[in-house]
Amino acid sequence: MSHAHQSTGAPVVRREARDKVTGSARYAAEHAPPGCLRAWPVPATIARGRITAIRTADALSLPGVHTVLTHDNAPRLKEPDDPILAVLPNDRVPHRGWPVALVLADSLEAARAGARAVRIEYETGEHDVVLTDDHPGLYTPEEANGGHPAVRERGDFDGAYAAAPVRIDATYTLEALHNHPMEPHASTARWSDDRLTVHDSSQGATKVRDSLAQAFGLRTAQVTVVSEHVGGGFGSKGTPRPQAVLAAMAAMYTGQVVELAMPRQQLAAVVGHRAPTVQRVRLGADDDGVITALAHEIITHTSTVKEFVEQAAVPARTMYTSPHSRTVHRVAALDVPSPSWMRAPGEASGMYALESAMDELACALGMDPVELRLRNEPAAEPDSGRPFSSRNLAACLRDGAERFGWYRRDRRPAVRQEGPLLIGTGVASATYPVLVSPSTASAHAAPDGSYRIRTNATDIGTGARTVLAQIAAAALDTPVENVTVEIGSSDLPSAPLAGGSSGTASWGWAVHKAAEVLADRLREHTGPVPDDGITVTADTEQETAQEPPYARHAFGAQFAEVAVDSLTGEVRVRRLLGVYAAGRILNARTARSQFIGGMVMGLGMALTEGSTMDPVFGDFVESDLASYHVPVCADVPDISAHWIEEDDPHLNPMGSKGIGEIGIVGTAAAIGNAVRHATGARLRALPLTPDKLLPYLA
Known about the structure:
By secondary structure, the protein is an alpha+beta fold. The protein has 17 helices and 27 strands. The protein has a 7-stranded mixed β-sheet with strand order 3-5-1-14-11-12-13, with helices on both faces. β24 and β25 form a beta hairpin. α9 packs parallel to α16, α12 (464-476) runs parallel beside α13 and α15 crosses α16 (667-679). It is globular, with a radius of gyration of 26 Å. The protein starts with a helix and ends in a 5-residue tail after the last helix.
C-alpha cells in the first residue's frame, strides 16, 4: 500500500495534542515577558453620545498604574480598513461597551483597579437599540454578507403562492448569539525600532498584519503577527479586533511590551455577534408536496459603525425546488455593537427558519418530513441554474433515517409519553457552500529524507497542522511522520484566514501543489539532496480565480430525539445524529470532532443560548458564561456523526469540502421540530427555554 493511501483520510492524532494538554502550547497572552505592562480597557457606559471629560488622576495615583490612554493622548492612526479598529480616535461613543480608555499597569490586578478608578463624563443622546419588524429605519441594502445580492426574485411568487392549495406563512425570531471562545481575544505587542510584532488570538495572521500595517502607516514587511495556537474563534476572530490595535498603540506609546486580554464581560460589545433576525417564510405547495412558491424575507440589525447584513435568506436560494421565489434582506442601523461572523453565518440562522417551515408544511400535508424533502430535490441549483458539482442530500436523509430508526416513529404529535416526559423526534437538512481563497505554500526536502511544509494557516482547534501534513505526505508518497508543518505566522507564505469552512481547501490546495512540484523536482534531481535541501513555492492564484461552472455545496441531515418535562418545561436532547456529504474526508478523527462540535453548538442555539438587548441601557444582558449558557457534555448523552462517501472531482485536488460549520446548520431546527412533535406546540422563537414552553404544557 502506498503512503498516500495510509495518510489521507486516516484518523491521525493531531500533532499538538500533547502540547495542549500539558500546557506547553503557548497562546497569545502567554508571550508576555517578565516586566511587561498589562492592559485593561475601559468601556463606554452610555449607548450613544460623546465624552465631555476623562478624569484619570485617581487611577494614576494607584500603585502600579503607569498611564491611561484616551482619545486625548493615544497615538493617532491612519484610517483603518475596518471601522471597528478606529479605537480612541475622538470623543464619539457609537454604542455601549465601545473602548474609551486603556489603563496600563505592572499587573493585571492594578490595571483592573485603575480602570475602575477612571472617571468619565458624557453628553448622552437618545439611543435606538431594539430591532422590530416594523422599525422605521429598515432599508434594503445592496448586498448581504459575502457579496450576495440582498434581493433575488424568480418567476411570479405572489401569483404562485396565491394559487397553491397548501400554504405556510410563519415568522421565526432568533435572539443575538455570542461566539464566546474559550480563549478570550488577546494580543501581546512589542515595537523594535520601526518593526511591530504582535502575538494575536486570531483566525488569520496575514489579515491582522495587513490591517495593522494600514492603521499604523507601515509596510507589511515591518509587521509580524503570530497566531500559533488559538483557543477557538467561531468567526469572532476571523478579522482583526480592537485588542490588537489597542495593544500596539499602548506599546508604541510606552516603549514597552504590552499584553491585553479582553475581559470576557466586554467581549459581547467589541468582537461581533450573530445578529438577531426576524424571518418570514412562506411556502406554497401542491397536494403532492411539491413546492411551487417560496419566499424567505429577513429583518436584522447592523451598527452605526459599519454595515454587516446576516445573509440568512441565501440558503433558500439553494435548497429546494422553487420555480417561483423571493428572497429579501432588510436591515436597520441601530446604536448597537457591530454584528459579525459566527459559525455558519447566514446558513445557521436561515436554515433554522426554512427547515422549521418545511416541518410545518409536512404537518399541513400529512406527509413525512423526510419524504417532503426528497420530493423537492432540485435538478440544478434553483437560483443560478448551475448543475451541482455533487448533491447527496437525499443520501444523507435516507442514511440518517435508517440509522436513527426514523420510520418507526408515530407521526402523531404528543402521543409518546414516559411518566411526565413527552418524547418527540425531528429532522432538518443542512447545507454550506464550498468556499476557497488563493493561498501560498512552500515545500522543502532535506538530505535526511524529511520534509517541511510552510504556510500561514491558522489552527483554531481544528487539527490543521495534522491534516496539512497528511495532504503533503500523500502528494510526496511518504509516511506522514516524515513531514513537519510550520503555520501561524505572517512571516510564512501568505494564506487566508480560517473561516467559512474554507481553510483546509484553500491551504491544502497550495500545500498539495507545492508538494507535487517538489516531488517532480526530486524525480528530476540526480545525486543526493544538497546539504541545504531543495525548496519550492507554489500558489493557487490562477486556480482559485476561475469561476466554477458548478454550484458547490456540502449537505447534511440532522435527526434529534428530545424529552420535554411536562411539569417544568425543561427540554433534554436524548439523541442527536448528523449524516453529511462533504466530499472526501481527510482525517476521520478530526472531522468527527468538527461535526460533533458544530452539532453541540446548534443544540445551544436551540435550547440554552440567547442574548437579550436591554432597551434602557443599550447593552446585552447576558455578558458572561454565568448568564450566557453554552451546552456541556451532560446536555448531549448520545451524539454521533457519520458521512457519505462522496467523490466530487470539481472541488480541489483533495476532493474535500469544508466541514467546520455545516454541523451547526439544521441542528436547531431538528431539535425545534422534535419539540413540536413531542408537545404538539409549535414555538417559533429561539432558544426554547422552559418559560416559553410551560404555557403550552399546562
